[in-house]
Amino acid sequence: MQNSTKSSRGAMHPNVIPFTPEGDFYFSQGVRAFQRREFEKAIKWLTRAIEFSPKQPLYQCQLSVVHTETGNYHSANQVLMNVLAEFGHEYVDCYYLIANNYAHLGLFHDAKKYARDYLQKAPEGDFKDEAQELLNMVDIEDEDEEEFWEEEDELMRYQESAFYYMERQEWQEALPLLEEMSRLFPDYVSAKHDYATALFFSGERLEAIELEEQWKKEHPSSLHSVCNLAIFYHHAGKKEKAAEHIHALENVYPINEQQQLKVAVTLAQVGCYTSAHERFIGLPKARLKGHLSYYKWFSITAYHMGEPSRALRLWEEGCLRHPSLSEQGGPWQDS
To answer: Where are the transmembrane segments (predicted)?
Structure first.
């Protein structure tokens, strides 16, 4: 009698069902990671869940909550705005969540608008009390103070938009915005230096250098000018002039973390990776996660310092938090 038992090699056991993870599996993993306060893992799992089930707004809402918890309020609102655009009538809680994020950003008038929208659309909603409390908190009775906050809110809106375009190297979009910023808020000095940067990388190199040199004459100790001129002369191939500013920069140790990041990024951009590496190592990562430039230039620096694993880890985390980073090549490519 012929043996009826077939070899199991290459065959599938009849009681084993092939498992292909769907969105709900990744979502549950993301929620567990969030509950354990493993926020980076939570973002990774939830992003994967959304890729599998892009029409499931609950996944996107949970991702926005993680962004809020980590202080990435702008990213949280981008996710929530997408949910409202497609599922607004079903997910009215998004209006309150957006209002809460705007309040954290200091954009109080936007916060009031969305809190009122929430109360109008869901007068007995789960966040009724929180929305009313938020409105009470940001309600400003004094007219002069209100005008002050309106100006502050407007400046912050400009800052958010300019930061968005500058981080993504979208220079042509940034230029008119920065020009308008400089006109409306002449005391906000960062705008004019960012304008020079956008101008330089848009191809108007000579004009950008002339502007920055003039500002440096007016304010010789300006860190913005030293950083910009180091980068401009480096890219223009004027090594001696670049070296002059790089040397000055290597002896500057700012207290402000945003300025610390600016120095580190500048040193990386001009190829001073040893000095840049020293600066990046000392930066408070937890407070700079919203900066694409932190991940990009720290990753490039680590790669050039012989740390490919760290470079890849930073790049992958940066792409996860800032998807547009993936369009800028990688740390192993010339930037």
So the answer is: none
